């Protein structure tokens, strides 16, 4: 497939811009440009150099990409060559290093896979026109009131030639896009409700019909951005400097960046992460001991299928009690209603007492490996491979550490997090003992996971702070990466199963 933009060599670049910085024009194509230094100067610095003119200068609101994570943690944790090269690639290809990239950069191996997949979905040749892709992205993000992603894709939508009139809301877009609203809300909040009838309605012959390839592209974009909204809100990402809400105006600034703390200071902000206490250390030791005992128990005696099924149902029922409390710290609601229809439609627990619920999705009956992967690859070549690589990278990602401990096998803990996320979406693995979830995931972690996965717009800093107080911020970001991918895979499985049923 051809790239919409030509390949750019990153060799001459010796530094990267700060978080959210954006160049004033597309990246240069020449390997040696005499004006390169001036060319790569950020817009902020160019405006600062307009000396003694009493112009308003934008200044970042808050330090660093995240309001949950201190900027010094992000800048110090991942300064290796792999991460640096990824930042350069992102900058040279898109003209920016946004806050998502900065925070994901704590895990360079995952960032590389994520960035390749997103770039392919948005920039490479595919079934959907480029302006449709960005509009679908903002439709998906708006379901979770994620103004960060909506603002980003409004800008991208206009840059690729999208009509400004469409930004008035769903009433101003073609009927074909409006028809996508039903599966957008279902996949965002209750993916188990999607059926082959929804697919049939979209593919029905007519001026507003979708092709199967277009629909696959749209479904992947929707699930990608629903899940990315979870990551953005779960990590407390701030708007980029060039976005609304990312800057404020102050009186004329000093004459150069070096004297401005916003440009080069890592800052010292209160993260809410209390210093490791004895109680926190004790919780960590208890968790590690549980992992050891569970591993030994696996080797001696395995639960029967009946016991595993019963423990899954118990976990499902208990998840009903795991919900965020009303919190004054909740983010203020954003005015994205014009991009959302049926705004009251939201997540509803898969198995609520006294209500008729759909049957549990048995993962073995429709797997990503045997069914979903091949269907996507057949209708939208190479995307299945990119998604599969991304799922595998995050599922197997480990540094063999837990807080200050090294040489720890964390596979059991990672699997418990992944399977708990699938559990709240009604997906069950026959070969997994869900008793491990209760053993390994403390209540505060369950509350955080369910909130970020199911209603991320309700995530607060207090929730982020309260779980795993003794772990590094990079390890909490790792949890958010698992959340992003497990949620996306769950929604994709429901959607692809419905498409397969339509086709057979």
Descriptive overview:
The chain has a two-stranded antiparallel ribbon with strand order 1-2. It has a two-stranded parallel ribbon with strand order 3-6. A two-stranded antiparallel sheet has the order 4-5. The longest helix is centred in the last third of the chain and has 31 residues, at 473-503. It is built from 22 helices and six strands. The two termini are 29 Å apart. Helix content is 52%, strand content 3%. Mean pLDDT is 80; it is low at 1-21, 23-32 and 252-275.
Query: Low-confidence stretches at least 5 residues in length (pLDDT < 50)?
Result: 1-21, 23-32, 252-275
Q: Total number of helical segments?
A: 22
Strand arrangement, largest sheet? 1-2
Mean pLDDT: 80
Profile the largest sheet: 2 strands, antiparallel
- Please tell me what the overall shape is: globular
Please provide the count of β strands: 6
Kindly, what is the distance between the CA atoms of the first and last residues, rounded to a whole number of angstroms?
29 Å
Which radius of gyration do the C-alpha atoms yield?
Answer: 23 Å
Listing every helix as H and every strand as E from the N terminus to the C terminus, the arrangement reads HHEHHHHHHHHHHEHHHEHHEEHEHHHH
What fraction of the residues are assigned to beta strands by DSSP? under 5%
Helix content: 40-55%
Structural class: mainly alpha
């Amino acid at each position: 497939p051809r790239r919409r933009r030509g390949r750019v060599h990153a060799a001459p670049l010796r530094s990267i811009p700060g978080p959210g910085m954006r160049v004033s024009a597309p990246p240069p194509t020449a390997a040696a440009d005499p004006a390169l230094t001036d060319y790569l100067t950020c817009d902020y610095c160019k405006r600062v150099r307009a000396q003694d003119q009493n112009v308003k200068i934008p200044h970042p609101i808050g330090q660093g990409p995240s309001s949950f994570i201190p900027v010094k943690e992000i800048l110090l944790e991942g300064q290796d060559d792999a991460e640096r090269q990824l930042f350069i690639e992102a900058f040279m290809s898109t003209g920016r290093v946004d806050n998502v990239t900065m925070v994901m950069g704590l895990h360079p191996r995952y960032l590389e896979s994520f960035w390749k997949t997103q770039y392919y979905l948005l920039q490479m040749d595919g079934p959907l026109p480029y302006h449709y892709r960005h509009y679908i992205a903002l439709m998906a993000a708006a379901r979770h009131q994620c103004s960060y992603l909506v603002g980003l894709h409004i800008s991208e939508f206009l840059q690729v030639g999208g009509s400004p009139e469409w930004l008035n809301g769903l009433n101003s877009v073609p009927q074909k896009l409006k028809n996508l609203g039903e599966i957008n809300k279902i996949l965002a909040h209750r993916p188990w409700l999607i059926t082959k009838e929804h697919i049939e309605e979209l593919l029905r012959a007519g001026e507003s019909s979708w092709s199967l390839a277009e629909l696959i592209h749209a479904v992947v974009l929707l699930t990608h951005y629903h899940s990315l909204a979870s990551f953005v809100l779960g990590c407390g990402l701030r708007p980029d400097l060039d976005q609304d809400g990312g800057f404020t105006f102050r009186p004329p600034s000093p004459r150069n960046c070096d004297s401005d703390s916003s440009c080069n200071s890592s800052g010292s902000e209160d993260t809410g992460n209390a210093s490791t206490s004895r109680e926190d250390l004790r919780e960590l030791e208890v968790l590690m001991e549980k992992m050891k005992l569970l591993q030994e128990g696996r080797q001696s005696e395995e639960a029967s299928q009946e016991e595993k099924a019963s423990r899954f149902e118990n976990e499902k029922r208990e998840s009903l009690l795991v919900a965020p409390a009303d919190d004054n710290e909740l983010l203020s609601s954003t005015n994205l209603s014009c991009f959302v229809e049926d705004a009251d439609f939201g997540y509803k627990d898969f198995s609520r007492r006294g209500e008729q619920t759909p049957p549990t999705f048995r993962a073995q009956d429709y797997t990503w490996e045997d069914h979903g992967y091949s269907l996507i690859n057949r209708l939208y070549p190479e995307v299945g491979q990119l998604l599969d690589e991304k799922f595998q990278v995050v599922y197997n990602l480990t540094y063999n550490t837990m807080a200050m401990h090294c040489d720890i096998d964390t596979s059991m803990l990672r699997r418990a997090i992944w399977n708990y996320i699938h559990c709240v979406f009604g997906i069950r693995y026959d070969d997994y003992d869900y008793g491990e979830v209760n053993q390994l995931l403390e209540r505060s972690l369950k509350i955080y996971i369910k909130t970020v996965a199911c209603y991320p717009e309700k995530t607060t800093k207090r929730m982020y702070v309260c779980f795993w107080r003794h772990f590094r911020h990079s390890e909490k970001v790792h949890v958010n990466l698992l959340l992003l991918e497990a949620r996306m895979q769950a929604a994709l499985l429901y959607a692809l199963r419905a498409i397969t049923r339509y086709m057979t």
